[in-house]
């Protein structure tokens, strides 16, 4: 497996220390963010690019353009600035997340957004990583629907899916699309008392033996179907962020997942 790590796994680390931690774990692929921590808003892209090169890591994506499927207001300007930053920092792709507040977004608006974003990505040599969110209030819950829109926008050459094990489980999705997938996000939920429909980002921890999301079966299915891209740790839980030694915790999760395969 190609394990990678998202900066939200250890948001208290500076970008330099985060890149160093990845290398200490034997990883060479990382994801940076524009929220927690906000590297995009606080560090110049040239500085990030130099630090990544010095550490020997590749920035596989920046998380995330939101809400990409509502192409109005400030979003077009924000999308261009975000793409410019990605290109200047050496990032390979932008993660794109849909509106997640209970508001419905039409299929036509989703397609229109993908069409509008396509030349912005193409001009900068970037891939758009579309990540459906499985929450009941999400405006785009399934990968199947995302692919239908990507194809309607004639974006198969520029867009790929993010298969997020958490969102795959929440959406009740059973189909896998390995040939259309560019990145897998992995995290677990271990709280035995939370119902699936009530699971939130705050419940997402590192994957271990108590995981309720069927990460191991999902990963096995992806591998069996031929997916050979990166599996990036993306835990949002404060209990993970507060760890004094996140490296050891991630190393233990890598060992657990690898051992089950």
Automatic annotation (TrEMBL):
GO terms for molecular function: isomerase activity. This is 2-keto-myo-inositol isomerase. It is an enzyme of class 5 (isomerase). Keywords: Isomerase. Its EC number is 5.3.99.11. Residues 19-256 form the Xylose isomerase-like TIM barrel domain. The keyword Signal does not apply. InterPro entries: IolE/XylAMocC-like, UCP036778_sugar_epimerase, Xyl_isomerase-like_sf, Xyl_isomerase-like_TIM-brl. SUPFAM superfamilies: Xylose isomerase-like. The keyword Transmembrane helix does not apply.
